[in-house]
Structure formats: structure tokens, C-alpha cells
Amino acid sequence: MIKLSQIFIVLLIILMSISAIAQETDTEAKNKIGLDKVLSRLENKMSGIKTLKTGFVQEKELAVFNNKIVLKGTVYIEKPYRLAWLVNKPLKYSMVMSEDTISQWDEDTNKVQKISLSKNPAFEAVIGQMREWFSGTYTQLMKEYNVILLSDKPVSLKFVPKPASFAANVIKSVTVDFRKDEQYINKILIEEKSGDTTSLLFVDTHLNIPIDPAVWRVAPIVR
Amino acid sequence: MSDNLSLKSENINKTKKLLTVCIFFIIITISIAGMFFVSFDNNMETMLPENGEIIRSMRFLRESDFSDKIILSVKLNDSAYSEIDLIKEVDRLSSILKPSFITDVFYSVSENESAKDLFDFLKYLPQLTGKGTLEKIDSLINTEGIKSILQKNYRQILSPSGMFSTPLIRTDPLGLKTGLLGKLQKFSSSTGYDVIINNGHFLSRDGKHALMILKTSVPVSDGFGSRKLIAYLDKKLESLPPYISVDMISAHLHTLSNEDVIKSDIKLTTTIASIAFFLVFLFFFRDIKAILVFMIPLASIAVAISLSSVFLDKLSYFIIGMGATIAGISIDYGIHVYTAIRCCSNKTDAVKQVAKPVIAGSLTTIGIFAAFFFSDVSGYRQLALFSIISIIFSLLCSLYFLPVFIERKDEYKIKGLFESFSIFPKSVSEKTQDKIWIFFWAILMITALFFSSKTVFDSDIKQFDGSNPQIFKAEESFQKAWGGKENPAILVVSEKDLEKAIYVNELIYNEAVKKLGNENISSFASLWPSEKTRTENALRWNNFWTKEKVLKLRKLLSKEGKAYNFAENAFEPFFEHLYEGTDVSVDVIKNEFLKRIKERFVLKNEKGWQVITFFPDEESYITEFAKISKAHPETFLVSRKSISKALSKAISHEIIYLSIIAALLLPILTMILLKDIRLTILALIPVFIGVAAALGVLPVAGLALNAPGILAVMILVGLCSDYGIFMVYKCRYGHNTGTVTAVFLAALTTLIGTGVLLFAKHPLLFSIGITLFTGLLAGFLSSVIAVPSIYRLWIKGNKGY
Question: Which of A111, B196, B707, B788 is the most exposed place for a label (fewest CB within 10 A)?
């Protein structure tokens, strides 16, 4: 009788664990379907964006600085390749990215530096990521990141770099929160392995508006 | 009594014939047996001028392991599939490629691991920092200098790429590693291909191609192994799904394809030639013994191979190939003797009469090939020996062996067909006919000269590549997907000891940078100097970073950093690792990153080590590097452009030299044999027009003259001079030996032999075919038409026409 009860208990444990595994697999599969649906929905919506102008507030909490640094500026995007990153505060800095070149200017040096992306693969890898985050091509990012759906409404996604990826050296995770209308990103939070964090809040976003061609020209200011 | 004498004489003749036949059979049998003991080689160096620079460069390119790599460009053909599918297939393909055929597959890097390797490599900064850089740093360790450095770092950290550069800045606030990264940048962009690393794989910019570099143990020169290797790869590639295709780039493919094209050409041309020769035999000879005429060249090749090997260590396959063609000339002597015997009423008279022009013709041909003994190319000297032996043996066979078997027969009717051939009606006088022929001949000559003036010489070795068009198409498609720059020139430092080779390479690099800048020079020395230099650098580094200097820098960074909000310990990682990497004895080659770079620049061979430097294959660079190389005897330059130029120069020099010797020898020998200046000029008329036509047809066919083409022209000169001499003898002495018939048959057989090459797909065979065929046709026609006409109009006392 004792033996029978023992067998019964063992069987029960086995059945429970099978059921738990099945449930887990089931949840994972559901999550995967849910994530795919969300990503496809987001990409669909963001693919309609041809141009974009948005203000941003970037907060950097880095060990290298005593205090949090807050940067303010504007981002312009013209698909498929153009991206301008203009910082107004606390320093003046601009970076314009075309298909193969990056032009940078800063107030202190008042010099324009041009970098060929094809000749600088490391720089290209870094900047390429930035382009992908901003333009919403998340399926591309899935090659290097595992994605977790944190919230469906409003959408919040957590990207964790795959161990062999380039980003895994520095980034712990990237959390992307979308606007309620899912037209564009609301906030990006980057957590680094070192403990440093960078958040990027997008404000005053305008989609598909004409962009002044002067935005794409980087030139030294004549003082 | 007279019956007895006649019987005795007949018996003596029979014994003589038997003896002759025995001697020839013994010689031929010994030669055939001897062929099994001859050493052959297929080294193309035999065909190169004995110019140390050219041979060394060619040897380097052959022996260096560049040619033992196979590149696969894996292409995604269907837009329904993504980069992820492409990468998946590349991973799968790499997993099924195994030794012994494929020893290594380089198709991906772990970006994370690579970055770690890279940062690990940067640790060795103290060993890699020279005196100049330290002096520059010293000048920056003051308030102003540190202010400007911090400002730059601040900007950098706040830039979009700051997230990735911050860890580096913390360990390197002075930007020392940035310089080193710049050098590394140059290394990665100097691979010649436009590659981006995506998901750890080498992808093209459009994301539709993936690059795989396979290392194989099968050398390109191993034809049998190459065939197995390519079959192995083809089988593995068959497993790829339909949306994936592969462009394979490999020297093995060229070797095999050339072999296949030549084999198929040989099959085709042999079939055509066999049918043509059978028809010639059926229509003109109709005599089973005529087969002996065709056997003479074969026997003479066997004799030439065996006898040449007595004087030479190894015989080149190429020389045997060319020599066999030359031996084909000697069939003409047999044809002349055969025709003479069958045309003449008396066999002995026929042989005596035909012997003179046959000997004269063979002597002029031997004279031309004797000119090759003066050549700088060892292959040409081999060719001279081989050709002369085969011509002499053919001559002996034709004059002594052949007459034993051939008898006069009444039914040999073709003589009448050619000896009295005319296209003009009988009402047109002979003089008018001659004038008309000379007029047409002059037009032909002027046209040939006009076009031959447009002939250009091409020394590019690529022209001999007759690979399948699909291979070139795949290479074109590869270039389109991956870019790919022009092949750089190479400076090679060759030493027994690796460290010594690296040190000399470093000295050369430093000299070159002084003169040419470092922009376009890709050298291992720029990244990893010799142990001697690294030891000196490490010692200098330790001496430079005294406690006082470190303290001063700490204070300055702390004080000036406040203005930029930098934390007190912002640059602590720099000070923590300041003296790391000063130990030169550590085996850094474990660093995968450095190992990959070293593989590109340091080669091992049986003699020792070769360290190579890449630079643009341009005149200015070549000149400067040549000067530097001169001061270092253990170095040499390898420039494809220079090889091409040097080859062109050497071959042009060779051509001029040999042509002058041949041009002098040919008229002198002809003059000695004919003993008349006008007859000599007449005998050379077919040579002039033959050469002019051969050279003239090349630009018309869109071809250029090349080294084998020159050999073809030399053969042409030998053949056409024979035709000229025979026709002059015919005109001068009027012997009834069926000369026109013999010249026709000789030309016909040679034209068949060369004409079939016009069906060849291989460019080398085709160019030789078109040169010989056109030249021979022009030479033959002018010998049977122009020579008799000019003779009749110009030289009195005509006996034959």
C-alpha cells in the first residue's frame, strides 16, 4: 500500500511537471505569436513614415560624469537613408547621415568631419543600430537581439542583445515604448552593462512633413 | 656474265635495303623504348626569359598560398526570403564542408568575440607606441593640452556613438589607442572587398550575398585533385535550396576548365583532321604504302624525344606539343620524295632530283630553328634541339627509308591535274597570265602589309585563359556584388628566421612611409613591429610614465575635468592598466584578431619565412619600392603590371633578336644553296607574303600577336621557304618530279593540320591556328602562282615553265 502511494505520488509529480512544461511552451508560443503580431503591426504603421521631425530630450546617467547630463535637440529622418541628429543644449552639435557618409560638426571646433561608413565598419555598426532604432525596422534588429513584449497597449518592447552580437559588449537591454497611436516611438531607455543609462524621450513629433533641404547640409558657421 | 653482274648488283641492293630498314627500325624501337625513361615537366617557367625578376615573381605568385583558396559568394535569389535565411544556409553549408578537401571555412566572426579580441590587442599599446607619439603626449600634459583633450572626450561621449566609445575613452583619455584603431581600420578596409559584418557574417552591402572563404589542401597545380575537389564542392552545393545560388571563385576552376576545353578541342580537331586526312588519302594517294609518309613525323617525334633527353634533364610538355607541330613540317619531305618516285620513270633519278630541294628546304628550316639556340628562353633552346633532331631524322627517313618501299605506279594521275593547272582560256598568252597573277599577288601583298602594320603585341598571360565563359560570368557577378579592387603590388621579405624577416619588413616600411606616406601602404609592421622595436618601446613607455608624470596627469584631469562634469574617477581605468602589456614575451598570437591579420602578411615556405607588404601597383610606388628593395638583397618586388611589362619587354627583345638572326640566316642559307641572288629573292617571296598575311589577319580577327604566335610565325617561315625553294628548283631545272603536286599535297596536309585549329575554343590554339593557316595559304598560293610567273618574267633561261 505504501509502495502504491509512493508510485502514485511519483506519477503525480511527473504529470504535473509535464503539464508545467507544456504550459510553459504554450505560453512561449503564445508570446511569440503575440510579439510577431505586434512587430508586424508596428512595422506596418512605421513603414508609412516617409519623413519625420521630432524633438528629443536625452538624459545620460553615466559613471564618467558627476551629474546627469540632459541634451535637447531635434531629429530629422527621410527614408530610406537620411537622418539628422541636431543637439542644441548643452552644446551645439550636428550629425547628418546619408547612405554611405556621416558628416559631423560641433560648435567648439567649428569643423566638419566626414566619415565614410564603408571604410569604417565599426562606426557603421554603431550608427547602423541607431538608424534601425529610429526607423522602426525591428525585424532587422531581431538578428542581434532577443525581443520581449513587455506590454501590448501601449506597446513596450525590451531588446536584449544576443551573446555573440556586437552590441552585447556594451548594452544590457534597450526598452522601447511606443505612443498610444503606435505611429512612432515615445521613449527609448538604454541600459548598459557598466550600469550607465541613457533615456531618449521624443516630443513634438511630426510625421510626413516636408523637410528643409538645409537640414542635410553640414557646414562650419562663419563667425 | 652480265646476268650474273645484274644479279649480284640486285643482291647488294637488297642487302643495302634490308640493312637500311633494320637500322631505322632499331633506331625507332630504341627511341620508343627510351621515351618511357624520359622525365617530363609542365613548369611554365621554361617558357619565360631567364630574367631573375620575372621568374622569382611568377614563382612567388604560384607558391604563395593565395591561389589555394576558394571563395564562395552565396546569393539570395528570391525576395520572399530574408538575410536570416541566407545566413542559415551559409551556416549549414559551412558545417558540411569537411577535410580533407576543405581544411578551413572562414565565413563568420563573433562580433562580440572580435570586439573582445580587439580590446585585448589594444592592451599592448606600450609595445606599439613609438618615441614620436610619447613626445607628442608629453607636450599635451599641461593645462591647455588637457583642457582640449577633455573637451574632445566630452563631445565624443555625448555624441550618438558615445555609448560605444565611452568605455574606450575611460581607458584611454589621451587618445593613444585611437591612433592604433585608425591603423586597424585601414587593415579592414584594405581587404579589397566591400564587406559588412551582419549578425557575425560577411555580407554584401545589399544584404543579398554572403562571403565564404574556403582553404583547401589541394594545390592548383594538382589537376586530378582539383577535379575531385570541385566535384566534392559541386555535390555539397547541390544541397542548397532553390532560392540560393553560389558563385565559386577559384584558380582550380580555371585549371580544370582549360584542361577540359583543350581536351574537347583536341577531340574535335582530331576527328576533323582524321576525316580530312582520310579523304586526302582516298582521293590523292590511293596507296597503302603512303601511310609510311604519315608515319615519318611520328617516328621522328619519338627519336627527338629520346635523343633530346640525352642532352636535357627534363622535357617540357609545351615544347613537345610545339615540337610535334614542327615535326609535322617534316611530313612535307616524305610527300616530295613519295610524289617524285611515283611521277618519275626511274626511282633512283627521282630520289636524286628531289634530294637537292628537300635538303635545301630542310637546311633552311634547321637554320631558322638554330636561331633559337641564341634565345634567352630555355624552352626555346629545348625547342631548337627537339625540332632539329626531328627534322634531320625525317629527312633521313624520307631519303633513305621511304624509297625502299615506294614504287612507281602508272595510275598516279593527280600529277597531270596540278602540273598543268590554269584558270585562263588558252587564248590568253602566258605572259599576260603571268602579269595578271603578279598584279593580284601585289595587291595581296600590299593588303597584308597594310593590316600587318596594325598588329599589336600582347604579353598578358590572361589571354591564354580559355576557361568556360560561365567561370568569367561568375567572377563578373562576384565583382559586382563585392567590389574588389585592382590587385596590389607586393614587396616580399624572405628570411630563414621569422623575427629577422619582420625586422627587415619594418625597416622597409619605415623607409617607404617617409617617401610615400602611410596612406596606401598596408604592412604588418604598421601594426606589429619587430620584437626588438617592441622591447625598446615597452622600455621607453615604462621610463616615460614616471610616478611624477602619472601624478601630474591625474591632477590635471581631475582639475580640468570639473568644467565638463567629469567624475573624479572618470579615467581611473587608464591608470589601472597603464603598465599592462609591456611584457614582450607574452604570446599574443593567441589573439584571434592578430592571428588573422598575421596570416595575411606572414607566409611560411620550405625555405623559411616571407613577410609581405601591399601597395598600389602604380609607377610611383613601384619606383620607390624598387629603390628600397635594392638596398635589401633579401627582398623582391612582385607587381603584376611590372611582370607584364618585363615579360613584354623581354619577349619583344627576344623576338627582335631571333627575327634578326633568322632574317640573316634564311637568305644566307638560301643563297648558299641556290647560288643565285635572284633565285634567292624568288624563293623567299612565299616567306614574305606568308608572314605578312599571318600578321595581317590578327588585327582583322581582333587578335593580338603573342609569344606562341611568334613561334607559329617561325614555323611558317620554315614551311614557306620550303615551298619557295621547291618551286625555284622546279622553275630552274624543270625536273619531272611532280613538284607542284608535292607542294600542293604538302600544303594541303599542313593546312588541314592547322585549319582544324580554327574550330578550337581555346584562344591559344585558335590564335596559333589562324596565324599558321592564313600564312600558309598565302605562302602556298604565292609559291605555286607568283613564283613561276615572276621567274618567267624576270629570269631568262626558264626550263620548266
Answer: A111
pLDDT for B66 equals 58
pLDDT, tens digit (0-9, with 9 covering 90-100), for A75-96: 998 887 788 999 988 888 898 9
Domain CATH for B316: 1.20.1640.10
Q: Any bridge partners for residue B494, and if so which?
A: B610
Is domain A37-216 in CATH 3.40.30.10, yes or no? Answer: no
Lowest-pLDDT choice from A207-211, B462-466, B496-500? B462-466
Lowest mean pLDDT among A180-194, B156-170, B400-414: B400-414
Burial class (CB in 10 A: 0-12, 13-18, 19+), B38: middle
Count Cα neighbours of A142 within 13 Å in the Cβ-side half-sphere. 17
Distances (CA, A) of B740 to A135, B148, B341, B416, B548: 87, 97, 14, 10, 105
Pairwise CA distance, residues A59 & A89, whole Å:
12
The closest of B300, B322, B278 to B754, measured between CA atoms, is B322
For the stretch B562-607, pLDDT in tens is 988 899 888 998 999 888 888 887 776 677 778 878 888 888 887 8
Encode pLDDT of B419-440 as tens digits: 566 667 777 777 888 888 889 8
Q: How far is CA A39 from its chain centroid?
A: 13
- Which three-class secondary structure state does DSSP give residue A117? coil
Q: Which residues of A205-215 are buried (b: 16+ CB within 10 A; e: fewer)?
A: beeeeebeeeb
Q: Quick one: pLDDT at residue B472? A: 87
Whether B131 is in a domain gets the answer: no
For residue B668, being part of any structural domain is answered with no
DSSP E strand boundaries for B525-616: 602-605, 608-615
| Lowest-pLDDT range of A2-16, B190-204, B729-743 | A2-16
Which DSSP helix (H) or strand (E) runs through B388?
A: helix B378-396
Establish if B222 belongs to a structural domain.
no
Q: Determine the Cα–Cα distance for residues A171 and A156; give it in Å rounded to an integer.
A: 18
Q: Which residues of B touch A (CB under 8 A)?
A: 82-84, 87, 110-113, 115-116, 151, 154-155, 157-164, 166-167, 169-170, 181, 185, 188-189, 194-200, 205, 565-568, 570
With beta carbons under 8 A apart, name residues in chain B contacting A163. 112
Contacts of A144 in chain B (CB under 8 A): 199
Is the pLDDT at B468 greater than 60, yes or no?
A: yes
Residue B383 or A3, more confident: B383
How many domains are there within chain B? 1
Taking CA–CA distances from B82, the nearest residue in chain A reads: A140
What residue ranges do the domains of chain A occupy?
A: 37-216
In-domain check, residue B590: no
Give me the domain span that covers residue B346.
1-37+287-412
Residues in A closer than 8 angstroms to B567, CB to CB, are 63-66
Instruction: Give residue B514's identity as a one-letter amino acid code.
Output: K
Task: Provide mean pLDDT across the span B346-369.
Answer: 85
List CB contacts (< 8 A) between B87 and chain A.
143
